[in-house]
Design brief:
Layout: E1 5-9, H1 14-25, E2 29-33, H2 39-46, E3 50-52, E4 67-71, H3 80-87, E5 91-94, H4 95-103, E6 107-112, H5 117-130, E7 136-143, E8 148-151, E9 157-161, E10 176-179, H6 187-190, H7 193-205, E11 210-214, E12 227-232, E13 240-247, E14 253-259, E15 262-268, H8 274-290, H9 294-303, E16 312-316, E17 321-325, H10 330-343, E18 349-353, H11 358-372, E19 377-380, H12 397-400, E20 407-410, H13 416-422, E21 427-431, H14 440-448
Parallel strand pairs: 1-2, 1-4, 2-3, 4-5, 6-9, 6-10, 7-9, 10-11, 11-12, 12-13, 17-21, 18-19, 18-21, 19-20
Antiparallel strand pairs: 7-8, 13-14, 14-15, 16-17
Helix pairs in contact: 5-8, 5-9, 8-9, 10-11
Length: 451
């Protein structure tokens, strides 16, 4: 590494912080900017990484030759620090290019898809670590087993979440990769589903050994040089699929895995919900194709605690349950809601949803309404804008008006906790990719007082 200093613009992002931690481990001087303090930035500061929260170009290390500047595409081109770095001649690269450079020359196992990337990649990293093989991993969430989004090992294998946003995954050239879904998303980037799916096909063509596809995805063998296997929750046409699925009283599934090498019996999934059965099948397929012992794969799936904000259980009693999930796309909402329904049949399900991005709300409002109609009561918040400016006529109301749940209410973030003080709760589910996670602690404390 020829740079002594690595400076991150947007260091508090989940992907950026993982790379920052990696270079801190490698002995570089790491620092950066983020818009607001968060649990991640506090953790980085505790690890010895300097973080500031104002646009201050003078915080970039002075030595142009010794400093690499990494930025997230969520930061606008007009941002002062970014403008300064470019004008002064620093090498400035996107996070995705940085990840591509890190993984080059190592055996990369990548997990792509509109849904399930974080849980599946975190599980792959856990299986490799738990089996004793080891890996480095750059994850899109905080592993509950390890309390971090970055693992480091001397084994020359890297697990990476392959993000389709801004075509970031085109920087990766994996040996083995999975794709879970190719649903329309990020249409502000791609324009339409056809162009997004073409981006996935380009990614697939960069896989060198084995491509593991969710059964039915529109990628053909002639599109890629890697061999293709398919997986599915329970469809026997898939190369990897479950059979003999059993649900126990605690909400955990056990299944037998049918795969090209035979059958692996009695896999108990450490995380809840049918969606995590499917994620575990994808992770098992990657690890078995990698060459891991099947029994070690089986054991590690059972000890996996999941990733934060992915069907993340904060409170669970027979009369009061609270689960948080990152779902921010209609298909993800449907998976989360139906998974929780199956785990807790007959109980009343209340969901709090914060839409993420004006463009996503505009593009998928009817689908959001259909998914959220699966709740008994919807508490809908205003849109979290992230990197976007408001779009005239696009508010949470365009989702709310078409929701057919028995009960629904549209409120602001400031009204949420006062409402919950009076709200009867059986099973509560918070959903969204914005700053709804700031409510997790207060909601948990509020509900614990009722026990």
């Amino acid at each position: 590494m020829r740079y002594k200093n690595i400076y991150f613009i947007g260091i508090g992002g989940i992907g950026m912080s993982a790379i920052a931690r990696y270079y801190k481990f490698k002995g570089c001087a790491v620092s950066g900017y983020d818009r607001t303090p968060s649990d991640i930035t506090h953790a980085l500061e505790a690890e010895g990484i300097a973080v500031h929260y104002e646009d201050r170009p003078e915080c970039i290390p002075e030595s142009v030759q010794d400093t690499l500047v990494v930025y997230t595409p969520a930061v606008p081109d007009s941002f002062g620090e970014l403008v300064h770095a470019r004008e002064k001649g620093y090498r400035v690269i996107k996070r995705s290019q940085m990840l591509g450079e890190i993984t080059a020359g190592q055996r990369c196992l990548a997990v792509a898809g509109t849904h399930g990337k974080t849980t599946t990649s975190t599980l792959v990293a856990h299986i490799l670590t738990e089996s004793g093989t080891g890996c480095s991993a750059f994850l899109g969430g905080i592993s509950k087993n390890y309390g971090t989004n970055m693992l480091v090992s001397h084994t020359p294998t890297v697990v990476a979440e392959a993000d389709e946003f801004d075509r970031s995954f085109h920087q990766l050239h994996p040996a083995i990769a999975s794709i879970s879904a190719m649903d329309a998303d990020h249409l502000d980037i791609y324009g339409d589903l056809e162009h997004m799916q073409e981006a996935y096909r380009i990614f697939a063509s960069q896989v060198s050994e084995t491509l593991i596809l969710k059964l039915g995805l529109p990628i053909r063998q002639q599109d890629v040089s890697a061999r293709i296997f398919t997986y599915h929750f329970d469809d026997p046409r898939a190369d990897f699929h479950s059979t003999q699925l059993r649900l126990d009283a605690t909400g955990h599934y056990t299944y037998d895995l049918v795969y090209p090498g035979g059958k692996l019996n009695d896999i108990r999934v450490g995380t809840l919900g049918w969606v995590n059965v499917e994620n575990s099948i994808a992770a098992a397929a990657i690890c078995l194709c990698y060459g891991l012992d099947a029994q070690k794969v089986r054991h590690a799936i059972g000890t996996f605690e999941g990733a934060q904000r992915r069907l993340d259980v904060h409170l669970n009693t027979p009369s009061l349950t609270y689960i948080d999930d990152y779902a921010h796309h209609p298909a993800e909402l449907e998976s989360a809601i139906t998974s929780v329904r199956q785990i807790f049949p007959g109980r009343r399900l209340t969901g709090i949803f914060q839409p993420h991005l004006y463009t996503r709300t505009r593009d998928f409002a009817p689908a959001f309404a259909r998914a959220l109609s699966g709740l008994d009561k919807l508490i809908l918040l205003d849109i979290y804008p992230a990197r976007e400016e408001p779009i005239p006529g696009v508010t949470s109301e365009i989702i709310f008006r078409d929701v057919t749940a028995p009960e629904k209410v549209l409120i602001t973030r400031d009204e949420l906790l006062p409402l919950l003080e009076k709200e009867p709760v059986d099973v509560l589910l918070t959903l969204g990719a914005g700053n709804i996670d700031r409510f997790i602690g207060p909601i948990t404390n509020l509900l614990k007082k009722r026990l």
